[in-house]
Each structure stands twice: as C-alpha cells, then as structure tokens.
Amino acid sequence: MTTTTRARPQAIHLTPAAEARVADLMSRAPEGAIGVKLSTPRRGCSGLAYSVDYVTAASPMDERIETPGGTFFVDGGSVLYLIGSTMDWVEDDFTAGFVFANPNAKGACGCGESFTV
C-alpha cells in the first residue's frame, strides 16, 4: 500500500492586484526586509485587526507564500483566523488599501478596522 500526499492549500489567496502590491512594496522595502507579513493583532472594538508589515526574519511557524514579486508571510498565530480568506488591493479616487474577504469573520466594527471570529 502506498501513501499519496497532496500539496497543502495556501491559508490565504492573494488576488493579482494584491500580488502586484506586494511586488511594489518589496521594490521599495527597507534594507534587510525578506518579505511582507500579514498578522491579526488584537486591536479595535471587535477584537482583531489586519496588519501588513515588512519582515526581516522568517519564523518557522509562519506560512510562506511565494508570489511573483516576493515572499508573503502569514503569521503562524493568525492562520486559523484567515483560512479560506482572499486578500485584494483596491484603489479608488479617495482611498487605497488591502481588502479582506474572510469567511471566518463573524462580525466587524462599524469603521471596518477590526473583526471578530
């Protein structure tokens, strides 16, 4: 009997616009940055918020997603809150930012800064 393994799906899907933004960020990254990292720190009135920052060292617990423009990390402690999510980059006349479609979010604050699971 043989065991068949399959590739583990990514915790989060990045749209082409989000991948392009990661590439743009990495093209202007400070010295020593090895990628961009998404985490969900406790913040806001609903409990958790999305935070995207440069990362200078990889943690063995972080999920790694290779994009055409650089490495995207998902904080190991945040993965369970983000499984199945889609991250997009949206720009219009008044604002620009990452937008998340998170099937795990059960609610959000009125301003959209934080969410609860």
From TrEMBL:
A GO molecular-function annotation: 2 iron, 2 sulfur cluster binding
Domain (Core): residue spans on this chain: 12-113
One of the protein's GO biological processes: iron-sulfur cluster assembly
GO cellular component: cytoplasm
Gene3D superfamilies xrefs: HesB-like domain
Superkingdom, natural source: Bacteria
InterPro entries recorded: ATAP, ATAP_core_dom, Fe-S_cluster_asmbl/transfer, FeS_cluster_insertion_CS, HesB-like_dom_sf
Family per similarity comment: Belongs to the HesB/IscA family.
Name of the molecule in the record: Iron-sulfur cluster assembly accessory protein
Provenance organism: Sphingomonas spermidinifaciens
